[in-house]
């Protein structure tokens, strides 16, 4: 009878998890569910307001008809007291018509009031379900966000310890070791060259000493 209740039952029922599984973004999907529920509630509130207004209108018509029945009864008595039997008869005839109308309006009003009460009850249920879903949405939203954070952390941690990362570090380590080996080789070559120069320097000094000794001998300085 009221189509706006259907979506609510879908949202609060067992289909929620299946819908979330299909959703690329559960948080956005939950927000969409809440918007649909709120739209359903607004639609239900409008329907309830109309039904209540209809029930009040029927009640007023019933009370007016009942009041007219009482009035025609008083008028019939008044006409008889005045000796006008024809007027009294017509008042009683209209009284009968109004009484039948009042009975019909009373029955219609009773059904309308029952419908209004039922709608109000279902609207209250919808609002309770909406509140429950709001709490559930907040919980699921927090869980989804926490899961996303854990996923990113796990991805980051797996990247740090991945084979590719290790291989990269090993290549850098080998490169550093190569630089160190080249530096040590360069120092060895420089040390070797320096030793050779020292030997020649010593050799040179030895020749000067011999020449100086010969010169002294020549000059008779010895």
The span between the termini is 141 Å
Largest sheet: none
What is the rounded Rg? 54 Å
Q: Uncertain spans, ≥5 residues at pLDDT below 50? A: 1-5
Number of domain modules: 2
Please bin the fraction of helical residues: over 70%
Order of helices and strands: HHHHH
Oligomer: single chain
Strand content: under 5%
The chain-level mean pLDDT equals 79
Sheet/helix structural class: mainly alpha
* Anisotropy-based shape: rod-shaped
Number of helices: 5
Number of strands: 0
Region (Disordered): 144-222
InterPro entries: PspA_VIPP1
Family: Belongs to the PspA/Vipp/IM30 family.
Organism: Aureibacillus halotolerans
Question: Could you walk me through the main structural features you see in this protein, from its secondary elements to its overall organization?
Answer:
With 222 residues, the protein is mostly helical. The chain folds into 2 domains: 4-160; 165-222. It is built from 5 helices and no strands. The chain has helices at residues 4-12, 15-22, 26-81, 85-160, 163-218. The N and C termini lie far apart (141 Å).
């Amino acid at each position: 009878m009221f189509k706006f209740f259907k979506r609510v039952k879908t949202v609060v029922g067992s289909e929620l998890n299946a819908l979330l599984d299909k959703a690329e973004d559960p948080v956005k999907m939950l927000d969409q569910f809440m918007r649909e529920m709120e739209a359903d509630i607004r639609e239900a509130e409008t329907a309830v307001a109309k039904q209540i207004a209809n029930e009040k209108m029927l009640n007023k018509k019933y009370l007016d008809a009942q009041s007219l029945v009482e009035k025609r009864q008083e008028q019939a008595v008044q006409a008889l007291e005045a000796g006008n039997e024809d007027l009294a008869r017509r008042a009683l005839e209209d009284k009968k018509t109004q009484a039948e109308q009042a009975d019909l309006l009373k029955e219609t009003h009773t059904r309308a009031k029952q419908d209004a009460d039922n709608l109000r009850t279902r609207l209250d249920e919808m609002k309770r379900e909406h509140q429950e879903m709001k709490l559930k949405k907040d919980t699921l939203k927090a869980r989804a966000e926490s899961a996303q954070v854990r996923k990113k952390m796990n991805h980051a941690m797996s990247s740090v310890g991945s084979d590719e990362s290790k291989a990269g570090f090993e290549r850098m380590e080998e490169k550093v070791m190569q630089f160190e080996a080249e530096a040590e080789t360069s120092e060895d070559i420089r040390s070797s060259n320096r030793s050779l120069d020292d030997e020649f320097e010593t050799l040179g000094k030895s020749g000067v000493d011999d020449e100086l000794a010969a010169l002294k001998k020549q000059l008779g300085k010895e």
